[in-house]
Amino acid sequence: MEDDFSQWYTDVVKQAELVDYGQVRGTMIIRPYGFAIWENIRDVLDKKFKETGHTNVAFPLFIPESLLQKEKDHVEGFAPEVAWVTHGGDEELVERLAVRPTSEVLFCDYYSKNIHSYRDLPKLYNQWGNVVRWEKTTRPFLRSSEFHWQEGHTAHATDEEASQETERMLSIYADVVEKYLAIPVLKGRKTDKEKFAGAKYTLTIESLMHDGKALQSGTSHHFGTGFAEAFDITYLDENGDSQYVHQTSWGLSTRIMGALIMVHGDNHGLVIPPRIAPTQAMIVPIAQHKEGVLDKTYHLRDQLKDLVRVDIDASDKMPGWKFNEYEMKGIPVRIEMGPKDIEKEQVVLVRRDTGKKEFVILAELPTRLPALLEEVQTNLYNRAKAHLLEKTNVATNMDEFATILEEQTGFIKAMWCGDIACEEKIKEDTLATSRCIPFEQEKIADTCVCCGKEAKELVYWAKAY
Amino acid sequence: MEDDFSQWYTDVVKQAELVDYGQVRGTMIIRPYGFAIWENIRDVLDKKFKETGHTNVAFPLFIPESLLQKEKDHVEGFAPEVAWVTHGGDEELVERLAVRPTSEVLFCDYYSKNIHSYRDLPKLYNQWGNVVRWEKTTRPFLRSSEFHWQEGHTAHATDEEASQETERMLSIYADVVEKYLAIPVLKGRKTDKEKFAGAKYTLTIESLMHDGKALQSGTSHHFGTGFAEAFDITYLDENGDSQYVHQTSWGLSTRIMGALIMVHGDNHGLVIPPRIAPTQAMIVPIAQHKEGVLDKTYHLRDQLKDLVRVDIDASDKMPGWKFNEYEMKGIPVRIEMGPKDIEKEQVVLVRRDTGKKEFVILAELPTRLPALLEEVQTNLYNRAKAHLLEKTNVATNMDEFATILEEQTGFIKAMWCGDIACEEKIKEDTLATSRCIPFEQEKIADTCVCCGKEAKELVYWAKAY
Question: Is there a single domain that holds both residue B352 and residue B412?
Fold first, then answer.
């Protein structure tokens, strides 16, 4: 992993049986273990969306070309990577259909027909689905031609309400990614250069991978009335006056699986945080051919199964082989039980994150195991947080900026004048892009790191996936 | 509904806010209420799939044309209704990509690479997703260019195991459709003419709509080794000999939403069975401007919400307007509470299925309401079962066959010689198709209903959606 992070990533993705490559360039098959992790992330998010009043819907996969073209910035941003359907059966279509790269225009078209009065607002819709972006260079989870995600699309009576929604959804993303995926994030706003095509502004959570590169991990966009004007989405307010709606959209995708791998993984493979691990504890019988061992371990599984997500591997593979497999898959805790343990009425618990072993008497296991899982969860977060802080450095001029990137990558905190020219120059000279203008501002210098003119705000920069 | 069933269907689908039409011909937008029902059906099925050892996966949306062509019967069946992607961005693709109409070939390709030994079997995969079939005439849920479904794809060591799987999954479909959707079904096998393109045989559940037309409601296919031979999917058995795997696939789609509407609906709109109703009971405050009414009804909601899926409509619309809306949406039970009820410490319960009212004292509501919901569930099933039996008639010759169809449609039980020529002639003369060869065979005559030659088996026939 230290020698060739990119190869390590590809190996882990394959060997932990998360994905396989699809036949079509840049597509992936999400295998049972990979999909089970994604299902857990999805379920946590879905619950939070519903608790905050959102409802799920399913909009079509195809977008007529004319509809996609209605909002100019939006189509410019997405048209280059659209997959086009031109034929249905033997028949050539009169109009090409885009396979949705994102669904703003479909929701806008619907809202323009279904919103009439202030009583119809807010509309708080979400959908889980697949989208297609015809990417040139692809990597599983990180950048794939087809990916899975949720996209929320909302419409509000006022700009203020839309702002609150944009922030609220970003907070939910940050909360889930930090508390469940144990990945610390920076919260902030994208620069105009990096915002979503068609948005007034974009909020983002940014995380830092083990190799010091950043990953955009979830975004929430405020559209103002831009789309409403392009699609004529209006409502009659309480005074009977026609008003444009204020919209948002927000998305989190299977890309986050890439973050999970690259934040917590190590040379033994994946490390999955307990709260989203499909299997939290794997029982491996030792000397299972000896009398009573299998019975006892199955009994143990039955005792634990309402407390934690536990499984047992009673196959005829060698224990060492099983240890390697479940380390590769990042199962948080391994439970070993053999004849000696049975005699002493104990088990051996082995943490995946530290490798530390402990002996626990059976009577204490129902309290010790859940507690240990929480310790693993906390440790993973703290370790990742320490890494993020360690890899975050301050630059006040471009020499410092370049030196940091050469020596260790990571986030660079630097002041910016607000001019897109400086942002472009930094990217050209260093390959680092602006990741976000953090909500928590500090004034670390008076002048822009690039041009030396008066600084407007603090920006986090990094090389990114 | 009696005058124009087709128009009634379209009206209910729109007015109950289940779907809206998409911009692209034959596509649909599944709105919050429609999707919430589908989510409940999905959750019940998903749980049963997992309990029987299946795991979810996500395979790609696109299929290279050459891959689709590998199994001859399969491609002939599906090619005419494939939507083709020919361009990615500005670039013309070297090979056209089919938007998946079903995913057999993708799973086969994967299995051919990932199955090596008998230890790798069985593979019990399922995926939830969208597929596209470019249909000429479309109707929401019943026949749409894009629809949502689950498709299970399994591989087994023996023909016997694959047979058991095919039957097991059909049983799960029958069980869920009967017990949760309250729709009685016929279980049987499709004739060779009606089986899935590429299958050895297809099992089906068939239900009967209010207008007497049948609807195929879920199918489970046994592929034998047909796909395995086309895709070279082999494993080494315990003796080290190479063997072809035996495969199945099975699917249930949003089409079942059409059955739900057309089996239980009436002139007031939808009737949703309690076990899958997103809202099982809707509280409508009466004279809600009077002091204490809103407080009491909200309090009631809070008391009931852990027992049943309950909601309250405290909007400023008139109660009569609310009654109509929730009747249209088919909410199983309405709870009315006004000043007089509060005084008497009671509520009024109104069943959606029969319209019957009852007064229940508050102290008894936590036991009475769940019991009433079960009564509604049972009544819906019994009513639909009685309808199915009433509309099932026996024909021993084509005159009887034609007379039944003219007078009242429904299922026709008739003996068949097994010759596809008779099946085709029946369809040509009457528009009825063979729905299934029921598992429960009876010998109602010695001769084929069509040709008069020796009968082989009993078949259910019907006009169908």
Answer: no
Compute the nearest-CA separation of B243 from chain A (Å). Answer: 23
CATH number for the domain spanning A422: value is 3.30.110.30
Classify strands A123-132 and A242-244 as parallel, antiparallel or unpaired: unpaired
Per-residue pLDDT tens for A244-293?
A: 999 999 999 999 999 999 999 999 999 999 999 999 999 999 999 999 99
Confidence band of A136 (pLDDT split at 50, 70, 90): confident
What torsion do the CA atoms of A165, A166, A167, A169 make, to the nearest 10 degrees? 80
Closest to B96 in 3D by CA, of B110, B119, B79, B115: B79
Q: Which of B233, B264, B295 is the last residue of a domain?
A: B264
CB contact under 8 A, A130 and B132: no
Q: Is residue B456 part of a domain?
A: yes
Same domain, B226 and B305: no
- Which of A27, A59, A87 is facing B29, going by the closest CB pair? A59
Question: Of the candidates A20, A35, A89, which has its C-beta nearest B134's C-beta?
Answer: A89
CA distance A343 to B390: 67
Position B445 confidence tier, pLDDT thresholds 50, 70, 90: very high
B154 lies in the same domain as B183: yes
Q: Please report the residues numbered 70 through 89 in chain A whose beta carbons come closer than 8 angstroms to any beta carbon of chain B.
A: 79-89
A437 lies in a domain?
yes
Task: Report the DSSP beta bridge partners of residue B464.
Answer: B214
* Inside any domain, residue A90: yes
Classify burial at A92, counting beta carbons within 10 Å of its beta carbon; exposed 0-12, middle 13-18, buried 19 or more: exposed
> Are residues A158 and A217 located together in one domain of the fold?
yes
Q: Nearest CB to B85: which of A56, A58, A83? A: A83
A165 with A295, same domain: the answer is: no
**CATH number of residue B190's parent domain:** 3.30.930.10
SS3 (DSSP) at B281: strand
- Same domain for B117 and B258, yes or no, is yes
Q: Is B164 in the same domain as B24?
A: yes
Beta bridge partners of residue B132, listed in sequence order: B146
| Cross-strand bridge partners of residue A58 | B30
d(CA B460, CA B465): 15
A51 interfaces chain B, CB cutoff of 8 Å: no
Which residue, B230, B264, B298, sits at the end of a domain? B264
Q: Which residues in chain A have Cβ-Cβ distances shorter than 8 Å to B56?
A: 32, 35-36, 39
User: A429 vs chain B: nearest CA distance in angstroms?
Assistant: 29
pLDDT score recorded for residue B407: 85
Q: Which pLDDT score, from 0 to 100, does residue A48 have?
A: 98
Q: Which residue do the tokens 């929480």 mark?
A: A374
Asked if B57 lies within 8 A of A28 by C-beta distance, the reply is: no
A185-210 average pLDDT score: 97
Indicate yes or no: CB of A146 within 8 angstroms of CB of B85.
Answer: no
What is the tally of structural domains in chain B?
A: 3
- Domain residues for the domain of A428 are 392-462
Question: What confidence category does residue A77 fall into, taking pLDDT thresholds of 50, 70 and 90?
Answer: confident
Helix axes B255-264, B32-51, angle to 10 degrees: 110
Q: How many CB pairs below 8 Å do chains A and B form together?
A: 160
Report CB contact under 8 Å: A97, B83.
yes
Torsions phi, psi for A288 (to 5 deg): -70, -10
Query: Is B375 inside any structural domain?
Result: no
Are A62 and B20 in contact (CB < 8 Å)? no
Mean pLDDT of A74-103: 94
Contact A109 B23 (CB under 8 A): yes
Could you tell me the end-to-end alpha-carbon distance of chain A, in angstroms, rounded to an integer? 17
On chain B, the residues whose CB falls within 8 A of the CB of A125 are 32
Q: Is the pLDDT of residue A95 over 90?
A: yes
Say if residue A259 is in the same domain as residue A401.
no
Is B66 an interface residue toward A (CB < 8 Å)? no
Task: Report the CATH number that the domain containing residue B354 is assigned in CATH.
Answer: 3.40.50.800
